[in-house]
Every structure is written in structure tokens, then in C-alpha cells.
From TrEMBL:
Enzyme class, first EC level, given as a word: isomerase
Record-linked NCBIfam families: DapF (TIGR00652)
Record-stated family: Belongs to the diaminopimelate epimerase family.
Pathway assignment: Amino-acid biosynthesis; L-lysine biosynthesis via DAP pathway; DL-2,6-diaminopimelate from LL-2,6-diaminopimelate: step 1/1
Positions that bind substrate: 16, 77, 87-88, 165, 198, 216-217, 226-227
Keyword Ligase included in the entry's annotation: no
Assembly description: Homodimer.
Keywords carried by this UniProt record: Amino-acid biosynthesis, Cytoplasm, Isomerase, Lysine biosynthesis
Catalytic activity, EC: 5.1.1.7
Reaction equations catalysed: (2S,6S)-2,6-diaminopimelate = meso-2,6-diaminopimelate
Main function: Catalyzes the stereoinversion of LL-2,6-diaminopimelate (L,L-DAP) to meso-diaminopimelate (meso-DAP), a precursor of L-lysine and an essential component of the bacterial peptidoglycan.
Protein name, per record: Diaminopimelate epimerase
Length: 295
């Protein structure tokens, strides 16, 4: 048990919420069991995941990126599992760095397990408007091959999209057909996603405007998923016959999620950008006895 205090913050991006643990020197032991307890909405702080804020030079998974990005987002899902990337997480991570006075408005690079991501913190607007945060997520990869997802007796073909992490995007007639999403929707073939998958259910709302729900690997149904919104926008663009690499023009989709709207733009060079809000809600100190109970 450590006698030093462990600080935390709570933040969200379109209501995809995170417990933020600032730990520049990588001194906090964060086993999966502690991550799960931090994310517990009754016995912990509550969140869809944990953003462990570490200097790249201090973390073995990020040391090789330290020259390109000072800070490493050590992201964990609510069940304690590690994911390659979290799109809303990296925007909230940048908001934390700004909140802590570690960076200002403008551009910064953040190291993630999915590589170094370029982030832009927009100038704050009127009172109460912190300004949006944009992240360049890199290219979407769309492996060939049929994938199917199901909920109860309903079954849909899904598009396999990787945003660094795996997604199955199913276009449905009604978002309610996804049901309560208390459990992960089954998919096939199993070989398509050996490490599990995030599943998105999508409906059209208008030209280049969709709405979605998501069941996240390791976190359950969440109110938003940034990588999911990117996967959905790219899958919708291909379905709609829009490919910026062919036309030379960027393609943008508005993606409505239960927690708010993200705007996803795919550039002719393949880069997928995501823009939306990111908010710090609270900060405090973990109770030492509570923490000791989990060591
Ligand atoms: N909510 C995130 C995605 C977090 C990771 C995901 N659950 C996975 O296991 O791949 C986002 O905003 O992208």
C-alpha cells in the first residue's frame, strides 16, 4: 500500500466517460482488478475506461515514441483489459493535459498503443464552450470477408473495419433492434475477431448523417465510441460509393450517438479525423483505505 495520495479526475467525450489517473512517472500500480473497481459505477468512481496519463519515456509500451510525443495514453477498458486505441479517450486525454496546464491550445502529439496521434485543441468559445478537440486517427482498414452479427433472432451482415482496434458495423432498420445490449452481440466467423470486437448498429438520418449505438469490447454498451464513429463513417461512405482516395475530395459524416454528435472526416490521403467536445467534470483524491482494499 502506498502512503502517497493518488489523484484522479473524471472526464467525458460525448458521454463516453473516463477515470483519469495522472501518473507522469508511471509509479501507480494499475492491475486490471483496480481498473475495474475504479470504473464500477456503484463501488468506484464510474467510467467506461481509465486514462492512465504517463510520460512516454516512463512507460515500456511508449518509450520508443518518446521523441515524437511527450505523453502516453495508457488506455484500459472498464473490465481492465487493454485496447489498442480509444478515440474519445485521446480527446479527453488532451483536455486533461490542457486543464493541468501541461499543454495549451493548438497542436500536440499523443502516444497511444495505436501509434502517435496528432491532436488539435481548438480555441475556447463563449463562456461554457471549451472548444472542440480534433484527433487524426490514421487510416481505416477494411479487411475483405463476410461478417455477421446477431441479436436474438435478428442477424445482419456487418462491415469489418479496423481503426487500430476491431469493429463490426451493421446497418439496421431501427436502433431498437439492437435490444438492451447487456451482453456482447454474437458474431461469425469467430476467426474474424480473435480478440473480440466492438459492434456498431447504424441507421441513416439524412445525407452523410447517421446515428448509431455501440457495444464496446471490455466496456458494454457506451453512450459514445470515437473509433466506432470513425468505423461507421468510413463504412457508410463506402456503402454510399464515396471514396476520397478516388475523388480527391474529403468526405464528412455527422455521427449521432446517444451521448452527442461527432463529425468524422476522411481525407484523400486516407487519414480519418474526428472532432467533438471533451470535458473535465471533477477531480479529487482516491481514499487511501479504499485503494488499500484493492492491492
Ligand atoms: N470508447 C473508445 C474505444 C475503447 C476501446 C474499445 N472498447 C476496444 O476494446 O477496442 C473510443 O472512443 O474509441
Amino acid at each position: 500500500m502506498s502512503t502517497s495520495q493518488t489523484a484522479f479526475l473524471k472526464g467525458h467525450g460525448t458521454e463516453n466517460d473516463f477515470v483519469i489517473v495522472p501518473d507522469p512517472d508511471n509509479a501507480v500500480d494499475l492491475p486490471a482488478s483496480l481498473v475495474a473497481r475504479l470504473c464500477d459505477r456503484r463501488a468506484g468512481i464510474g467510467g467506461d475506461g481509465v486514462l492512465h496519463v504517463v510520460r512516454s519515456a516512463a512507460h515500456p509500451d511508449a518509450r520508443s515514441m518518446a521523441d515524437a510525443a511527450e505523453w502516453f495514453m495508457d488506455y484500459r477498458n472498464a473490465d481492465g483489459s487493454i485496447a489498442e486505441m480509444c478515440g474519445n479517450g485521446v480527446r479527453v486525454f488532451a483536455r486533461y493535459l490542457q486543464h493541468a496546464g501541461l499543454v495549451g491550445e493548438g497542436d500536440l502529439a499523443v502516444a497511444t498503443r495505436g501509434g502517435v496521434k496528432q491532436v488539435h485543441i481548438a480555441k475556447a468559445g463563449a463562456a461554457g464552450d471549451a472548444g472542440d478537440i480534433t484527433v487524426s486517427m490514421g487510416r481505416a482498414v477494411l479487411p475483405e470477408g463476410d461478417v455477421t452479427v446477431s441479436v436474438g433472432a435478428r442477424e445482419w451482415p456487418a462491415r469489418n473495419v479496423s481503426m487500430g482496434n476491431p469493429h463490426a458495423v451493421a446497418f439496421v432498420d431501427d436502433l431498437d433492434h439492437a435490444g438492451d445490449l447487456f451482453t456482447a452481440p454474437p458474431f461469425s466467423p469467430a476467426a474474424a475477431y480473435p480478440d473480440g470486437v466492438n459492434v456498431e448498429f447504424v441507421v441513416d438520418r439524412g445525407p452523410r448523417h447517421v446515428a448509431m449505438r455501440v457495444h464496446e469490447r471490455g466496456s458494454g454498451e457506451t453512450r459514445s465510441c470515437g473509433t466506432g464513429a470513425c468505423a461507421v463513417a468510413v463504412a457508410a461512405a463506402r456503402r454510399d460509393g464515396a471514396d476520397p482516395a478516388v475523388t480527391g475530395e474529403p468526405v464528412a459524416y455527422a455521427v449521432d450517438l446517444p451521448g452527442g454528435r461527432l463529425v468524422i472526416t476522411e481525407r484523400p490521403d486516407g487519414a480519418v479525423e474526428m472532432t467533438g467536445p471533451a470535458v473535465i467534470v471533477a477531480e479529487g483524491v482516491l481514499d487511501a483505505d479504499w485503494l488499500a482494499g484493492h492491492s
